[in-house]
Write a structure and sequence with these properties.
It contains 19 helices and 21 strands. The protein is an alpha/beta fold.
Length: about 525
């Protein structure tokens, strides 16, 4: 047990030991090594928020870093506000582990190679080079590169990369997994399936990130860990412990209230937080939040909540940035058109399909009630033959009306054991069903606008259409990582495009009328020849 109290952050380093015996006693204490400010130094951030050369200061863990160190588990997921110093803390922790424990492999995964190299150079190597000379001389580097430091005195190493499959790290830190999962979902899956399972049971793994929407590997891990935390059960070594660090825990996040106007609406928000979270938010804290919101995030409250959350629920509020149908879904829910929409016996069930060139299939099932389309079921699958979906529909016992297929259902492709068009195979499977091809619109954006304009006609059963509604909410534009912006093309690689593409067939190909549920063509006016 350490003889010092590390429950509160220090403003100044402890006095350095004077005798070899004092040094030996202090160096044997991991808390002293990490928190005393004597051993490790870091680059500090200037007024511009950037780490600047020459501004070197002792590493004195802040309140958030100390809280994490004190509650660390074998597996940890950190959901946090920005700029709380967890990457720096992880670098110092990993360096300390590599220096003082023999034959260890420590790894830090970053979102890109530039960030990884910078982290090794400006956080890990600098802290090593700033060690007291006698200690550094006892712990020489055997080999170093832009990605790795290998120590000669104990055969341990610390490495940075964008993935670490094939290694066995005793300590692994994954920085900003939320951003990795959003921009590079395949790399995120590689990290989760390759690097994390390689950490030994007694090793330590930490994942830290701000939130990036309601999907992806970080969202999955964080929400499962939070659910375990809410259950209050003891954690096994392999289970993730949930750590949440909101913005108001940082003492430095204050500003002058006289220079920042706080609206009544924002005061209502802060007052609600005080009640729900059992906290007190001072006027300087409120002023800082408003200043940050207006200056750094241009008044975008969603981005503010994502990057500087007050509660864990705020972190994963669904972003509307780049999405196609978020406003339409929000309006439908507010109007009560998403809820309990039951099957009505006596009415036919129509379907609209997406059967694209990939292996994904999405099918919406609806009944027409006057001018309202009641969507009662959504069916999807990947890698299944058409007979699977036909049998699934047939098992419902419903009487079917129109079966709307996209224009490319007439294109020949490799089917299970032959080359043919999807519509031909579907007609062979159920010749008694009414298969129709929806004509193609002149471009994709026109189809989206048709779907948006007709969304007010749609009612959705929340239970039967849950997966489809989730896909509609997450259907978004493709993100161009080179320019850092969304482009006017749909994202097709994240598994969310089948449901909206299927629903577009309804919007483009089904036109209801008051009497029959379908809009008939106007009869031609009788002319003289007809008479």
């Amino acid at each position: 047990m350490s003889q010092w109290d590390w429950s509160k952050p220090r403003s100044e380093p402890l006095p350095a030991p004077r005798t070899p015996e004092e040094w030996a006693r202090c160096l044997a204490d991991p808390w002293w090594r990490l928190c005393s400010g004597v051993l490790y130094k870091i680059l500090i951030k200037g007024d511009d928020g950037q780490e600047s050369d020459g501004q070197i200061a002792p590493f004195l863990p802040n309140i958030n870093q100390l809280r994490f160190f004190r509650s660390m588990h074998y597996r940890n997921v950190i959901l946090k506000a920005r700029q709380l110093g967890f990457s720096t803390a992880a670098c110092i922790y990993g360096l300390d582990h590599a220096i003082w424990v023999p034959n260890q492999r420590c790894g830090i995964i970053c979102q890109d190679l530039d960030t990884a190299s910078s982290m090794l150079r400006d956080k890990v190597k600098l802290a090593y080079e700033q060690l007291p000379d006698p200690i550094r001389e006892r712990m020489p580097l055997k080999r170093e590169s832009a990605k790795e430091l290998v120590f000669g005195h104990n055969n341990s190493s610390i490495k940075v990369a964008t993935s670490m499959r094939g290694t066995t790290p005793n300590f692994l830190h994954i920085s900003e997994l939320g951003k990795i999962a959003r921009q590079y979902p395949n790399r995120a899956r590689e990290i989760i399936t390759g690097a994390l399972p390689a950490v030994p049971q007694n090793g330590i793994a930490t994942i830290e990130s701000t939130a990036e929407g309601q999907e992806g590997e970080f969202f999955n891990i964080a929400t499962r860990a939070e659910a375990l935390a809410q259950m209050g059960e003891p954690l096994a070594k392999g289970q993730f412990k949930f750590h949440f660090f909101p913005w108001f825990l940082e003492p430095g996040y204050v500003a002058d209230p006289r220079r920042n106007r706080i609206s009544l609406k924002m005061h209502e928000y802060f007052d609600g937080l005080e009640v729900s979270e059992g906290i007190n938010l001072s006027m300087p804290q409120r002023a800082w939040y408003v200043q940050k919101l207006e200056n750094d995030f241009s008044g975008d409250i969603h981005k503010m909540k994502q990057e500087m959350p007050s509660t864990s629920a705020e972190c994963f509020e669904r972003s509307t940035e780049g999405t196609y149908l978020s406003n339409q879904l929000a309006t439908a829910r507010t109007a009560g058109r998403i809820g309990n929409v039951p099957y009505l016996p006596g009415l036919p069930v129509h379907t609209c399909w997406d059967i694209g060139a990939g292996d994904g299939t999405g099918i919406w099932c609806w009944q027409q009630v006057g001018l309202a389309s009641h969507f009662i079921r959504y069916i999807e699958g990947w890698g299944q033959g058409y007979s699977h979906y036909v049998n699934q529909l047939g098992a419902t016992g419903w009487v079917f009306g129109r079966m709307l297929l996209p224009h490319d259902a007439t294109a020949e492709r490799q089917l299970i054991n032959k080359i043919g068009a999807p519509i031909d195979m579907l007609q062979e499977l159920r010749p008694d069903w009414r298969w129709e091809i929806v004509p193609r619109v002149h471009d994709f954006q026109a189809g989206i606008e048709i779907l948006r304009s007709r969304f007010t006609e749609a009612w959705f059963d929340e239970a039967g259409c849950k997966e489809g509604l989730d896909h509609l909410a997450l259907y978004k534009k493709k993100f161009n990582t080179r320019i850092g912006a969304f482009i006017d093309e749909p994202e097709k690689q994240d598994g969310h495009s089948e449901a909206p593409d299927a629903l577009r067939q309804w919007a483009q190909g089904f036109h209801p009328s008051h009497k029959t549920g379908e809009r008939r063509r106007k009869p031609r006016r009788a002319g003289g020849m007809t008479a």
